[in-house]
## 1
Amino acid sequence: MKVVELMNKNVVTCHPSEKLNIILNKLELFKIAGMPVVDKGKLVGIISQSDILKGLKSGAIGDISVADVMTADVITVSPTESAVLVAKIMIEKHVNRIPIMDNEKLVGIVTRGDIIKAVAECG
């Protein structure tokens, strides 16, 4: 199975300058645990709940921006990548979501939950 078959194509993103209180609202509104960070159409990072929690140690939630706590070194894969390989990457790199890039364009995101759901539906 290719990752394109199970990725979410409606990707919620944020900007590096957004404050963490806004990001928490987005996470709750869209029922997600993290999102890619995009600036001028380019993927520049990824932010997760754990990044936000770490950031809260250094200041008030309304004062800290996404750029202060995001992970800038983002692991990405292409839509044609095998879902099994993506699952292995998630385990090895200890990540819960991987943006899907096609010719440097963000086209989707896959989470551990997406992979678990796909496995459950197969068997």
Note: The chain has five helices and four strands.
## 2
Amino acid sequence: MTKLNKDQIRDLLPHREPMLLIDELYDIKKLSSATAVVNVKKDSFFVQGHFPGQPVMPGVLIVESFGQAAAALTAHGLDKSTYENKLVFLMGVEKARFRNPVIPDCKLLLKIQAIRSHGKVWKYQGEAFVDEKKMADAIWSATIVDKK
């Protein structure tokens, strides 16, 4: 089973702390699917302000986590020359649903799948779970562009 740790993910993505949200990627099926881990901690950067005394991971950061997991899955499956000096930009989010609040201290598992690719445009779907309880799901698209 292929597994990437945070340092290996950092080598694939341009994101850096505090915005590098993915801690691990495993069960990788090349250019097809993977499971990502986001360790949502009590000291995560968003906790202090969202919401004081009752922290919740913002839905937009769950969507960002989906996007980062998909970008890492795709970059890991491509030849390095294909993604070197490139960025993956989110193009659209469809049918995002937030079913339960993600409360720190937890391990958020993202099960993602590439459902279509056409040139530099990819479409993905994913589901987010904490302790086997579905927290969110979404369909989104992204594109690979040159760094400027």
Note: The chain is about 20% helix and 45% strand.
## 3
Amino acid sequence: MNNQICTGPLPAAGLSRRAFLNRFGLGLGGIALANMMSPTNVLAALANGGADKGILNGQFHFPPTAKRVIYLFMAGGPSQMETFDYKPLLNQRNGEQLPDSVRQGQRLTGMSGNQSSLPLAGSQFGFKQYGKNGTWVSDLLPHTAKVVDDLCIVRSMFTEAINHDPAITFFQTGSQLSGRPSIGSWIHYGLGSDNENLPAFVVLITPGKVDQPLYARLWGSGFLPSQHQGVQFRSGKEPVLYLNNPDGVTSQSRRSLLDRVNELNSHAAEKLGDAEVDARIAQYEMSYRMQTSVPDVMDMSNEKPETFELYGPDSRKPGTFAANCLQARRLAEKGVKFIQLYHQGWDQHGDLPKGISIQCRETDQASAALIMDLKQRGLLDDTLVVWGGEFGRTAYSQGKLTKDNYGRDHHPRCFSLWMAGGGVKPGYVHGETDDFGYNITKDGVHVHDFQATMLRLMGVDHERLTYLFQGRRFRLTDVHGKVVQALLA
């Protein structure tokens, strides 16, 4: 049996909280009605204070500096040499062979491992220094460069996976193998929700950009109770699939149906003691409340024209990365705990100059606008924003290197990402790589270190947020990882 760690008081012997409330005439319908009539009444206190406080019940391990996370995931692996890790030596030695002393016999993928040569490829894009500390940023990212003093850039990330699916799975769940809970699920499990009418974990994906596939398990709850899984929001008439009532079904009839189904589920929960029955009840109730809350939060008609101008012209086109960034800010305002954006298309094995130019045009202005928008609304201080992919790219060209074209293969040894707000050190660059952008020379940050640091900012000790499953206590960082203190403000 799956058993969660529970440090709070247990109900009377053999009696769950839900069964206790039902036995005393405080069923789900009664609680909902009473809560609408008097949100501060004693029923709310009985039902865990009227809010989902997570398994930690609001008892943080550390004082939190971030209340929520907006994670901008650039699926495919952006090249660090074209974004945040300036390597002029690559340009000077463009076309020369990657020295054996640099490669050191390290593994290559099957896509470039059989190449007869590994010619160094300098970036075709310039870099300039920005901000108080003169941080180098690519000309491809002019908007991001303007907010560099708000960014905490990590140039020394490294991972263990060399292919996309295990690498993305590793970042999102802490394991290269599928089946573990995602970061957002762990945070919801530990910290609960700040809005009972919206999911604590929402996923937004830029449509029409199929490069490397994204699977729902990336935002799944794994072995955690299923109410902790992410909920994907889409553009269009049906933001959440199967949420709307069918034709001819009224809200009142749906409420009546749910009450009857929940009564049956409550009997099953009392008899079987299966946490998934309670999870199913919670999901039914959330779905019912979302019928009103989701259309409201997805309606951007009340946004000011200058806000759309800040995020760029694409922000008026539902589903684009820019529109999703604006939507993420709205969800953050509503108390959504973890907001995950995925933008595909960064897997540039060939024709990299053209491909990465398109990707940066689609994401640069909106990413910077999100920082500025949160900041001017007073939300950046307690909102952690993350930008990055699953690994980096090689210093050598995959395939033929020409005067105006080249590609880059997967490179897990070093790459860049940035964070902003939420208690990270602003205007700071952490870590260094060698002159070729191939190996880390200072202050490496492993994926589990990054995850441990993210949880620390949320007030959670990554070693203490665990779940007992099949006889073993699991955690997001598995048996590895340390908080990178230098990243904390």
Note: Residues 141 and 240 are 33 Å apart (CA to CA).
## 4
Amino acid sequence: MIVPIIFGMVIGALSSGSGLGGGFLVVPFLLQLGREVKVAVGTSFVFILMVSISSLIAYVKVGNVDWKSGGLLAIGGILGAQAGPFILENISDQSFKRAFSIVLIGTGLWLFYQSKTT
């Protein structure tokens, strides 16, 4: 019971500071706990929602929110998010884990490369 709370605190701090949402860490954590892929992904959104609201409040307090850009991105994100559960219903857990791994590795490499060029 305490491990998920501590893990959530660490992921919450990392998510709030990086803007990555935390799902990229929550999903593997839940998979390690034995949850099915579909349940792990769905459950991670509870975490992301709560951390996002809390983070937004903190960023609004210090004046670091571009409402127009955020709103436009949200419109596209809301529309695109409707496809995710349908896609996940039609692929195997193994395929999801492989694709998710490739996305994480690719993102890590991209961030690493970008940090060297700036």
Note: The helical segments are 2-18, 23-32, 37-61, 67-81, 84-89, 93-117.
